[in-house]
Design brief:
single chain; 5 domains; 38 strands; six-stranded mixed sheet; 727 residues; Immunoglobulin-like
């Protein structure tokens, strides 16, 4: 039995030793919760601070990078004495989570902290040796400083410290040195741009924004996200429309949800472009207030405001004692206008650093009363219409650099609702050119309306100035039209279609007048003129053998007629009393009998000199055959209803309308120079057509001006060609 018992005991002992060994081995190989412990090189302590009070009312947490450990962030927390008695909590979120609980320890121990088993809570002893000899009393001036000099930080992950105490709750954030890119900024105020130069070697995004709060930077409407690739270019240029103090630059890596580094280079720079503040601001009108919204928070701009009365576009007279009450409402400035006279010409003058911006935000339907002014030789009559019963006052004032200086006594009237009331303000010799200011006295409204009457002298000056301007305009218009007509207006009436001139008389006066007409058409209207008297041979023609001497009168006339018709030109037959004799002879010769011939009966009969009589006795070998050929072609054209390509022309004093045969009554006829304007329109094709309302006004007007000038010009030329009795 003893042997068996001994052997059993030995067996039990060996089994127990084996189990203990297994447990020890398992425990030895189990990973210890080192992530719940402070860093091996970390120092965690709590002691009384030398500071008597916090410098600011902000969060009493300060974070900084460790001096020797690049991946550590040092944390300092200042705790009020009364908060320490209530067991405050400090939560740290980084690569791991830790909870620090500062606790007062009345006995000095070597250990400065102790971890609670199974948790990530660490109790930090704050030794108070002075309180172990008696009851502890809270001291409001005592601060405790908790120092945790190494909290592990990883790239791209921020370290967040939350402080939870009875008096306040807050948090602070810090980033690993490599979590945000490193870069430099350079300002160019002249071009309104910021140059960003990257120091890091990874791609980043860059943009500019308006910093509205500590953690809120709003992207501007003209801001674009720019990617900087250091392998190609390390810098980029950001264009800023408004150089404001809250303009910041954000640079961050391109991976998902990265921390952003924000730098505000203009925050400490004096505001240089005040105009940018006005351009980037927006004014909103409410019933009893105005809200000025700026891109930057209102604390950046101490903008003051007052009222002024706009008399002219660039003249706004300041209203005395009219500064508006201002208060900040978030990032905006709110101005109280509940007691302001809201008239469309009552404006608000905003001022900042000797710069002003005037805005007239009130609408016509916001005004509660209306005023008009009547000027008499000895007084100003003010008429007031009010939608409510009120007292109104009026007083003379004289304009100066500071505004409208009051002059004379104040006169008031009790105005009834919806009833017109009058205030009579006498004028003296000193105030003959004064204005008048009107305001509502009771219930009082801020702001005086300033009315300046137009006195008689001023009205006369205005009228004289208006007459002078009108005369200058008329003179300028006349000079312009004269130069236009004389130098270049005929370009508008240039006749591109050719004209064939056919003479009907061998009289030297008739031929000279015809040549004067041809010269006017050719020289002043740019017309291509064909005339038998000017084309005896092929010299100067389009080619050899095309002159009238080369072809003969009839072939030359037929060829010219066809060419003019193809070019949609006109054939002008210059008629005279001699044309009737030629027409009669041609009709008797072609038809074997006498046809109708107009007898002038003494009308338009001309005194002929010996040279003309001699020419009549020996008909020209050119004029008569060309005329007969032209009459033949015209008659054929009339039979084919194509007589619109020809017209008759006769000169006043050398013929008259009755000289033209009745058989050609449907052919247009013009008396020169009287009907020169109509002839020009006929040659240019501006004639009335059936179904059209009429010529265009502008061509007709120019034609009238040009033809008037040309008529005078031609009349002067013809005056030397006409007989003395007909001049």
């Amino acid at each position: 039995m003893s042997l068996e018992s001994g052997s059993g005991a030995k067996c039990w002992l060996s089994r127990g030793a084996l189990a203990v060994a297994v447990v020890v081995a398992v425990v030895a190989h189990m990973p210890l919760p080192t992530e719940l412990l402070p860093q091996p090189n970390a120092s965690l302590s709590c002691q009384k601070s030398q500071m008597k009070a916090l410098e600011t009312d902000g969060c009493p947490v300060k974070m900084s990078h460790h001096q020797s450990e690049s991946n550590c962030i040092a944390i300092r927390v200042w705790i009020k004495d009364e908060d320490l008695n209530q067991a405050p909590t400090i939560r740290i979120v980084s690569a791991r989570k830790e909870i620090l609980q500062p606790v007062i320890k009345y006995k000095r121990t070597k250990k400065k902290w102790r971890m609670k088993k199974g948790t990530n809570e660490i109790r930090v002893w704050c030794h108070d040796i002075a309180a172990q000899h008696g009851p502890r009393v809270n001291n409001t001036e005592t601060l405790w400083e908790l120092v945790y000099d190494c909290v592990e930080a990883e790239p791209r992950h921020p370290v967040i410290v939350s402080y939870i105490a009875q008096s306040q709750r807050c948090s602070a954030t810090s980033l690993h040195p490599d979590a945000v890119p490193s870069f430099n900024l350079s300002l160019d105020l002249a071009s309104k741009s910021i140059n960003v130069t990257l120091k890091s070697d990874q791609k980043v995004h860059a943009r500019w924004c308006y910093k509205r709060s500590a953690h809120h930077c709003v992207q501007g409407s003209h801001s674009n996200l720019i990617t900087i690739d250091p392998t190609h270019l390390r810098s980029t240029l950001l264009k800023i429309p408004y150089m404001l103090p809250c303009v910041c630059v954000q640079v961050y890596y391109i991976h998902e949800d990265p921390p952003r580094k924000t730098v505000c280079p203009l925050q400490t720079t004096p505001l240089l472009e005040v105009e940018d503040v006005w351009l980037s601001s927006e004014l909103t009108v409410y019933e009893s207030s105005l809200t000025l919204s700026t891109e930057c928070p209102a604390r950046y701009f101490p903008i003051s405001s007052s009222l002024c009365w706009r008399i002219q576009q660039n003249l706004c007279i300041p209203v005395a004692n009219s500064t508006l009450q201002t208060q900040q409402q978030g990032p905006d400035l709110v101005y109280n206008t509940s007691l302001v006279d809201k008239h469309p010409r009552m404006c608000v003058k905003f001022s900042l650093q000797n710069s002003h911006n005037i805005s007239c935000p009130f609408l016509p339907d916001m005004s509660l009363w209306h005023v008009s002014l009547e000027a008499t030789p000895h007084a100003l009559i003010v008429r007031v219409n009010s939608s409510v019963q009120a007292v109104f006052s009026a007083q003379l004032c004289v304009q100066n650099e500071k505004g409208c200086e009051s002059s004379g006594p104040v006169r008031s009237v009790q105005a009834k609702e919806a009833t017109e009331s009058q205030i009579r303000v006498p004028l003296d010799s000193v105030a003959m050119q004064a204005c008048i200011q009107v305001w509502r006295t009771s219930p009082a409204l801020i702001g005086q309306r300033i009315l300046c009457p137009r006195y008689r002298r001023e009205r006369l000056a205005v009228r004289a100035l208006a007459v002078l301007i009108l005369l200058l305009l008329l003179a300028f218009f006349a000079i312009f039209m004269h130069s236009l007509v004389k130098k270049g207006a005929t370009d508008w009436l240039y006749i591109q279609r050719p004209v064939l001139l056919v003479c009907s008389s061998e009289l030297s006066s008739h031929i000279s007048a015809t040549r004067a007409l041809a010269s006017l058409l050719r020289g002043d209207l740019g017309t291509t003129v064909h005339m038998a008297l000017c084309a005896p041979s092929s010299q100067g023609q389009a080619g050899p053998g095309t002159g009238i001497a080369d072809l003969g009168p009839l072939p030359w006339l037929y060829g010219q007629w066809e060419a003019v018709q193809e070019a949609r030109g006109k054939v002008l037959i210059v008629w005279s009393p001699d044309g009737n004799r030629t027409f009669g002879e041609w009709r008797r010769r072609t038809r074997g009998g006498e046809d109708e011939v107009c007898d002038a009966g003494g009308r338009g009969k001309l005194l002929e000199d010996d040279e003309d009589l001699e020419l009549q006795k020996s008909p020209s070998a050119i004029i008569q055959p060309v005329l007969e050929a032209a009459l033949d072609r015209l008659e054929v054209a009339l039979q084919k209803c194509k007589g619109g390509s020809a017209a008759f022309v006769y000169f006043g004093g050398l013929g008259h309308r009755g000289n033209i045969p009745k058989v050609f009554r449907d052919v247009p006829r013009f008396c020169i120079p009287r009907d020169l304007g109509g002839l020009i329109r006929e040659l240019k094709g501006l004639t009335r057509t059936k179904g059209t309302f009429g010529w265009h006004c502008w061509p007709r007007l120019v034609s009238k001006w040009v033809s008037t000038w040309l008529v005078r010009k031609l009349a002067r030329r013809l005056r030397t060609q006409l007989p003395p009795e007909q001049r």
